[in-house]
Each structure stands twice: as C-alpha cells, then as structure tokens.
C-alpha cells in the first residue's frame, strides 16, 4: 500500500459536517484506509475571490489505488457533496486534493503530484506537518518540517 496525503477544505454551509462527510466517504473507498487526520485549521481564502473563511486540514491514507483511480474517487466524493466548479478559487462545499502520493512525481494533464503549490500554502503545510513532519517532498527533497513556516493567519480551529 502507498501512503497518500490529501488536503481538504470547506467554506460553504456546515463546514465541519462537509469535512466529516468527506472523511467518512474516503474511508469507504476500495483498498483504502484513513490512517491519520490533522486538526482543523481556519484560514482566509486565497485567489482574490471574496468569500467565507475555510476550514482546512490534511488526511493520511494507505491505498492500493493508482493516482488516477484515487483522483476519480475523490472527485466523485466532491460531486456527492455538491461541489460545483464555477469560479476558479471560488467557494466550495468540499475540496479534496492529492498533496503527496508516496514518493511519486507525476505531471499529467489531469494530475500533478506532488501538488504544485503545496510548498507555498501554509494551510496545507501546517496540518501536513502535524501528522507527517518527516514526510519528504519528492521534488524539493526536503522534509515537511523543513519547509513549513508558522503563519498567524492559519488558526487552529479544532
């Protein structure tokens, strides 16, 4: 099985419920098991679109699914939870992104791993550091604990 880290976020409706529903659905995926979940962090949105604050976190999985199979499954979860992709970086009921997939480096039209902006996003790095500080970014070849910086705008929620 491969260790995978997904970031998750929600800023519409009952954010906690949306996240809990997504995490529960992740645990029902074939050949996949949730192994760790970070705390929830409240963060301002990025991208310049005015919207509510996000709840964000990171979940660790063990899976035998391929990266594209996992992507298809998490996109199905987003659809089930009423994710609508109208505005780039706009509000969303749930957002699930593959951040790291073992030590894989992949750059396809549908999927880039590691996530190309993860090293710039405190709302990904801080919760990832909480559950996987020793994980290695396979492109930067650095531990997450060596990449993460404190950010007062990423506030622990729960």
UniProtKB/TrEMBL annotation:
Gene Ontology molecular functions: 2-amino-4-hydroxy-6-hydroxymethyldihydropteridine diphosphokinase activity
Biological processes per GO annotation: folic acid-containing compound biosynthetic process
Pfam family name, one: HPPK
Domain spans labelled 7,8-dihydro-6-hydroxymethylpterin-pyrophosphokinase: 88-99
Annotated keywords: Transferase
EC number from the UniProt entry: 2.7.6.3
Transferase in keyword set: yes
Signal peptide bounds: none
Enzyme class: transferase
InterPro entries: Hppk (IPR000550)
PANTHER family on file: 2-AMINO-4-HYDROXY-6-HYDROXYMETHYLDIHYDROPTERIDINE PYROPHOSPHOKINASE (PTHR43071:SF1)
Name by which UniProt lists this protein: 2-amino-4-hydroxy-6-hydroxymethyldihydropteridine diphosphokinase
Species this protein is from: Macrococcoides bohemicum
Protein encoded by which gene: folK
